[in-house]
Records
---
Amino acid sequence: MTCVLSTTFCDLSLHHAITMTQPPRLSSSAPRTLAEPRYQRPHRQRLDRLATSVITAGAFAVLAAILAIGIFLLWESLPLLAMDDMALINSLSPLAWGTLKAALAAMLFALPLALGAAVYTAMYMPARQRTRIKPLLEMMEAIPGVVIGFIAGLILAPWVERHLTVTLVLLVWLPASALVAGMLWHALHKRWRQRLPFSSAALWLIPWFALMVLLALWAAPLAEQYLLGEDLRRFLDLQLGIDYATRNAMIVGAAMGFAVIPSVYALAEDALSDVPPALLEGAQALGADRWQALWKVALPAAGPGIFSAVMIGAGRAVGETMIVLMASGNTALLSASPFEGMRSMAAAIAIEMPEAAPGSSNYHMLIFAALLLFGFTFVVNTLAETVRLRLRTRLKRMGGGA
Amino acid sequence: MTRIWPWLCAASVALSLFMLGLLLALLLTRGLGHFWPSTLEVATLDSGELIAGEAVRETALPQRDGKERLYFTANRDIDGARWRWVAIDSIASRQTPTKLLRLQRGPWGDFIGYLSAYEDGQQRLEGEAAWQALATALAAPANTRPPATLVLETADGQLIRQALADIHRAQRPNAMHPGEKLRYWAHGVWQFLSEGPRAANTGGGVWPAIFGTVLMVIVMSVIVMPFGVLAAIYLNEIAHQGRLTRLVRIGVRNLAGVPSIVYGVFGLGVFVYGIGSSVDQWFFEDTLPSPTFGTGGLLWASLTLALLTLPVVIVATEEGLARIPDSQREGAVALGATRLETLTRIVLPMAMPAMLTAVILAVARAAGEVAPLMLVGVAKLAPQMPLDGDFPYLHLERKFMHLGYHLFDTAFHGDDVQAAIPLVYATALLLVTIVLVLNLTAIFLRHYLRRQRGQPC
């Protein structure tokens, strides 16, 4: 019984499907050969339609989930409108300041290193070396934040506290020592210069820096004794009245800067190496040296790409949680001193959210902080991505035209 | 000027590499060095006091000239401390006696001193015979060991009694030759990977954390892969390639840049407080008010991380789909294939490697992520594994341990952080190794497949 029913039903629906898909003239007049397509094709097409709708449904589920994040954050921050403005500002402003301070410190540390590295890799490095060094630097991005935070908070911070002079001296001396190395190199005999070419300076400068660090470790305490007559930390504390916290903005800047370098570097390097070589060759043919060609031609051409790299880096620095949580001391202060800690919005969420009762004002405030982070990074990244895509098509056109 | 700037640029590459190398070298040496049986010494002070322990490091004295040395002296049950700073000037002599013993014990942490006797009911052994008996007893599996007691003597002559049952390992590092040390080291690494934590996470291993991480990542992949692949197929194969699709694509790409803690907030608010507590009210009313799904757990953590890794999967899969030449699809359609047949017979097999890359990248991202997990279900010490022999075997509502969170918690919330740091180094090394290996696999896979298909890399 069921069998009969199902076959008739099936036949009917098949027939229906055929009349739907075939032009009507064919099905009515010409006696069709009732070969296998009659039974197979409609089935295949139904499957096809089913699959398409499944795929579409899946895609829309994904979209809905993504939209749900924004809607949830907005909806749960709405009760804040009913709250006292002053209380909200009072509790949020130290967090916002801490976030900005941490991000600023990280960018100060990361931007010179990342952009300098990008320029050197794109402009001076031989192609073979570049294919090895670039993935190596990009690999830095894979190191989990929790590991960097641990090293910064528990190893680097106490070390810096014990060797404050050495650290401050190194910050100035390492870049300066690169210039010293450059001067020495220019003074070298030609044979030696060929043996240590500038194009591989990035590699032979590493042992040089190791040497310089050792030199600073030896010389800085002597200079400290000679000039100040006492420990720099005590000097800061007693003579200048500057507090020094073990986990401070300097440490956070270095740690988070380290985490931000690879993403800024990769994007900036891509932008620079997308500049059509014809442009640079033209500039050099007109008598510019390599740096002039870079400064006057490549940088303006790749400017928007570098801007988007910086934006993406800033977005990362603002939202990074574990590094700030572990390396900053988490004290909600409104101070600009690089020797004091801070508490960022992301760290505050990670600390307070598990304890905040759902529905309490603190809960809503933390969700508002998350909304701010979400909105900020979304806007910044969209801006960066649009700029990057537009630049890419422009550079392609330039390259094609030249 | 044109001579200065190139040098600074070269210096920034060199400095970045220098820092990366320093970080990896630090992790490698400290992480692996922790398991090496280091030399123990007995220092005789000017006052006549004897200190037995492992010399850790030296620093300058804060106020006056000279240096002081930090000893790890263990024996917390006897003098209440594990560490001792000693001014180097006050040390009269240092010896490294071969009989000096280091025990790894359950409740009180390490013991450093001498073995004076071994008692197991019938007999009392002393001297070298006691050490032999202890070594044979420890070589046997934990549940077959005799109920013996050790009489231990500290360096300054105090005697204590110690049950054999609480002892995990014993070593006399000063009497070991390099081969023995290497074997001891390998065994230590194995124990670290295969055992649970003990002594408030300052000793033992990280097996439950490895297990929890892997299980969470698997559940996450099962959730994220179908949706990510469907969305990528829709965006690349079905959707009309207009302005709207481009906008959606940029939006998806940007989600990868949204801070992970935001996903954690979403997971806590929607999954745990929203869906979880509703599920509790419908199905687990008898256990309320203690929550079943209304608190963080494996399922919610996996869902949150699935959301977090969705952009990674979509972007990587779409990249693979976009690389397939249109002529392949057109050929299939010209031969009469429907869209589904083109997809399953032509497009998806060709995009398989891209999807594999996607899942590896997603797993690498999820394995290193900690911040969102802190909100949705990771535990400092989970009493029960989320996978066991009780029906229904996979307990999605249980809390679980995670390598990254274990690292954070041990490093910042332990009662003796100083003693835990070597283990934290080892955990950090393990985490970095896992994530780097996963990333390298993805890179090589991508590289290999592109070359195989004759496309430029």
---
Amino acid sequence: MDTPSRQACTGLVVLLVLTLSAQSRAFELPESVQIHGFLSQGYISTSGSNNFFGESSDGGSWDYREIGINGSWRPTPKLQFSMQVVGRDAGKTDNDGVRIDYGFADYSFISDADRLWGARVGRITNPLGFYNETRDMPFTRPSILLPQGIYFDINRNLALSADGVQIYGEERTSIGDFYFQAGAVQPRTDDPAFQDSFTGGILPGKLDGRLSWVGRALYERDGGRIRLAVSGGVFRGKYDPKQGQIDLEDGRFRFAPLVFSAQYNAEKWSLTSEFARRTGEFRDFGPFLSDDKATGQSFYIQGTYRFAPKWEAVLRYDELRWDKDDRNGKGWEAATGFPAHTRYAKDWTVGLRWDITPRIMLRAEYHRVKGTGWLAALENPGMRPTPILPSTLEDDIDEDWNLFALLASFRF
Amino acid sequence: MVPRLPLAEELVVANPSAPVDALSPTALRAIFSMRLRSWPDGSPVRVFVLPDDAPGHVQFAKQLLSIFPHQLRRAWDRGVYSGTGQAPNLVKSDAAMRAAVANTNGAIGYLPREMVDASVRVIEVE
């Protein structure tokens, strides 16, 4: 961890301790104020020289931690202010230290036993799939790492939340509950690995977010025994070329995910599956970068089994394809020199969760992966094409690899 | 499995100031999933619950809300950690539940039938 990020995280820990001690003393907050948070430390070990969240192939990496604190204030039942500050470290893909994950005002126009309608203004989490909105909070995830085919961590900030307005609605009917959310937002483009995946680590300049759209329709039957959702968005950005040796124009990018989600919850087990289709498009970058458009596809199917009180096991198959018309990446390799296996990933995961107390959780999981589609080139120079960055033997990256992870988490 | 004594029937109880005598199953579930935040007169609802694994909580969730405790937990966490909701107030025992509901304006909770007394109002679910 670099120094500013370490200082920021230390600051957050101090804030957290102060909050806890304030809560334990009879320091009176208004009863409409709530403060919650979490603290999490992970360990990741990978085979070969494939790195995920730090130098994980070299004796394992402890460079994966998440610290969050959130506050909400509800001065009246119709109005709520909420904010969450998170410090996150995930190898080179995230060392920006502390950032505001969300911060918004929420006003409900209509609220009765059958419906709830309202609007939010500020930085709001993106309603994509089942897990995106609370992806930082380890207790809400089905596993240590979310299924990377859909919830890849290399562009976490972009995916997590965006600045703008959102309209939401909820209709509770005799056949189930219907939830709607739609937002007009400016995306966050501050992920190091996302900037890097675009600029290839060699281009100057950066990407900025432009007016974008995101929304979800969700149906829940019997309080969530059956959950079905369609979510999607159109995220747009613009390249701001700085002075550099390569002459690029101020091109645009457009990223449009569409996610179908389904879940069945029984008392002891849950079955979840999501399918995503994403279109990515780059255009108007001038003569040195040709326009490019590709549609990727991902899906996973996941079973969780609560086999004893406090214990849960998970089994999942997760598949990612960056280009549905070039599933094995061979065309991409021929055209660009990037290894074919960087264009897909097939991941079998088994994991175990132990809730020692309602506040303390331990997790372990093992991934067997074919393909490197969700690794970050920022941490794996071997993913880059040889002519641009000559790879050395130690940069070599394996197509078949595995990952073992441990996680300890605390919440309040 | 550990053999368990038959559980007492859980009743929905509210502070005597609560402006209703009855709630629909839909309204009850919306309140305990922390999505319905006010009583019909607009005053705030304050929700009290026992720990997730308390037999009374499990019984209440399954019988009166027709959902599993893990679903409730997930709904609360989704609200709290995405900023779109708040968590219910946690009490450790039936006695603490009765005291909290009796002494908090707008409070709602649940109690085994034999714990109910005049300090709280029983809410019919219909």
